[in-house]
Structure prediction request, 348 residues.
Amino acid sequence: MSATTIGVIGCGYWGPNLLRNFAENETAELRWICDLDETRLTAMARRYPSVRSTGDYRRLLADPDLEALAVVTPVATHFQIAKEALLAGKHVLVEKPLTTTVCEAEELIDLAERNGRTLMVDHTFVYTGAVRKMKEIVDSGDLGELLYFDSVRINLGLFQRDINVLWDLAPHDLSIMDHLIERHPDAVSALGSCHIERGIENIAYLMLHFSDDFIAHFHFNWLAPAKIRRTLIAGTRKMILYDDIEPTEKVRVYDKGVTTNRVSDREADYQTLVSYRTGDVWAPKLDATEALHYVVAEFLDSVRTSRRPLTDGAAGLRVVRLLEAAQRSIKNGGQRIPLTSLSLWERE
Prediction:
C-alpha cells in the first residue's frame, strides 16, 4: 500500500503539530511545507530536510504527485485555498472553523462531492480520549434523558485581530456538543462585548434553543484571570463533568440527580415532592494518545478508502451555521435567530 502524499499550508501555531503527526504516520508521505513567513518556513525546512518548501501554496496545487493537503492558515483564507485545492483534485483537511460563512462551507461541500474528494475539518477535541469516552457514555443511555449541556472556555488571551472570541473558541465546544448530542437546535441567541478592540468581541455568551426542554449554554472569554475549560452534561439518571484542565481525571460521571413525585394534597390539587439522589462518582480510564494522531489517521484513512470522515464538511457546516447565527444575534442585541433549514442538520 503506497503512502498518501501530503502538504501542509501554514506553519504558525497549529501547523507544526500537524506536520509532526503527518511525518510520524506510516501511511503518509510528507511532500510539501508552505508558509509566507520565511523564518517559520526555514525552521520547518530544517526540521524536515527531505520535504520541499515554498512560500506559494499554488506550487502545491500544481504538483500532480501531491494527493492531499492541510490548510492551517488564518480563517479568512480557508475558503479560497480549500476551493482551489478541491478544483485541483486534492483531498483537503481544513483547520477549524471550516469557513467564515455558511455559503462558503456549502460551496466547499458541493465541490468535494462533485470532484470525488475528501473534505474534512480539524475539530480536534472530537478525537480526544475524553470526548470519545463521553460519546460512549452518552450513546449507552446511562445518563438517562438529556437535560442540558453547559460549557465554559475562558482564559487571558490570546487576543486576535482577524476573528473574535466566538469564532476562535466556540468551534471547539460546538463541535463537541454536535458530536455528543446529535440534535439540531431550532434557534440561537448570543450576547458579546468588545472591551479591548472595537468590533472584536472578547467575551460572548451563546445559547442554543431546542424544540423541547433541552438547552445548551456556552461562555467564551479572552479576558479572564484563570484558564477554565469545563463542560457539564446532565441527564435524568447521571451527569458528566468534563474538565480539560484536570491532569488525570478529566471526565467524571456522577450518579446524582433529583426525583420528583406529584401527590394529592388536601390544601392543593397537587404538590411536587423533590428528593435528591447521591451515588458514586466514577472517573473512567481515558486514552491518552494525542488527539491529532487520530485526526491525521482519520483523514488519511478516509482518503485511502473513499469514505466520509467523522468530522466531514457537513460537521464543519453545522458549526459555521451556529457561529454565523450567533454573530448575527450579537449584532442585534441578543435577538433569537431561527435556524430554519433543518436539512442542514440531517446526518447521512
User: Anything to note?
Assistant: Residues 4-125+291-310 form a domain with the Rossmann fold fold (CATH 3.40.50.720). The chain is about 35% helix and 30% strand. Residues 342-348 have pLDDT under 50 and may be disordered.
